[in-house]
Amino acid sequence: MNFLCTCCKQRITKGERVSRLVESAGVHNYAYHMEWAVFDEEEISRPITERKWSDRNIQPIVGDKRILRVKRPFDEDLGGVFTNIYEPWQMFYNGWDSAESPEDIQKTCAVLCRFDEVLWADEFSAYIVVTVLHTLPLCRLHQVFPETVTDRNFSRSLVSVMMSGRSMRTSICSIVHGLLRAISAMCC
Q: Looking at the domain assignment, is residue 177 inside a domain?
């Protein structure tokens, strides 16, 4: 399943990007950043596209069945296993500086998911059901990746972000994605 770009209307696919499972971490070297949908009980009976999202932050737990709203660059097959980043909803939409507490930041994690079912889809997005297979809090990245790789690339990413003047949301995402790219290079 993949989607059209809303601007150029071209289908977005993985192309040359190959996702590999990093055994020591239990997550892939490439992670999506898609929305984790949470609905209150009274919304469950409504069609998925008409439901109001809850403002509850429910961290994924291994074995959970969860709903993701996916869009480009998502490109996975039914039954496929992929990694998606979980962030509390206010951080997902407004950046990390909108966290209500340090605990919100600690809830952020890389989540290994299996794509189980499509609930609704069009050419630009979809709601899918996934099973949570593994979670890795981002604050534990340094414990599962070799020190030489994380130190070198974390420092390089951090300096580059600080020099560019990008926002905190972009900064953290750049650092996390930089680390995952570094791991990809190490695993090849």
A: no
